[in-house]
Amino acid sequence: MSHSRSGVLAAGVVLTGALAACTGGGPTGDEAPQSSQRTQAQTGPEISDPRSPFAVELCALLPADAATSLGLEPTGEVDDSPKISPDTSDSCVWRSADRHTSVSLAPIKDRSIQEYYDNKSAFSDYQELTIAGHPAVRANQGDPAKDGFCAVFAAVSEREMLYAFASDNSLTDPCGLAQKALEASIPTLPAAK
């Protein structure tokens, strides 16, 4: 297993174990906390420009020119690393030619960003962001700069999110890479119906 895959797997395990009320977690963002009241999880910021990440092929979430501009190969591949949970969504991973850097993207159904807002204390590295005009959070255990990987979640509609997981063995700025991937991806998604 490559370092980036083992890092993804380790991040999912750490996040899953750290959250007492989680959905079963894995590298595709299923480690988000479950709200004790589902109705509360359905509230949150209004998404003024809802997009549908499920309306495109998984490995078309990041356009080839955007991947290249991020220093990655233009074509992604479905991530075949072990899943933490059977209900974990598939993700697509784009890697650098030297395989030291990667970005995975995955859509997440039936989750509101409010679940992260309500459980921010569960993450040692937490920051609320706006990415491509959409509310987002950087939510990690540990220190992304030291660990070399970072998870960022963007709300693309009221109940759908787009998850980015960046791994950078050079330990430069994995969170910046995840944010840039989302910034490139979100505007290309079709409008939600």
Automatic annotation (TrEMBL):
Keywords: Signal. This is DUF3558 domain-containing protein. It holds the Pfam family DUF3558. Residues 20-51, 71-91 are annotated as: Disordered. The keyword Signal applies. The keyword Signal applies. Residues 1-20 form the signal peptide. It comes from the Bacteria. It comes from Saccharopolyspora thermophila. Residues 33-45 have a biased composition (Polar residues). InterPro entries: DUF3558 (IPR024520). Transmembrane segments: none annotated.
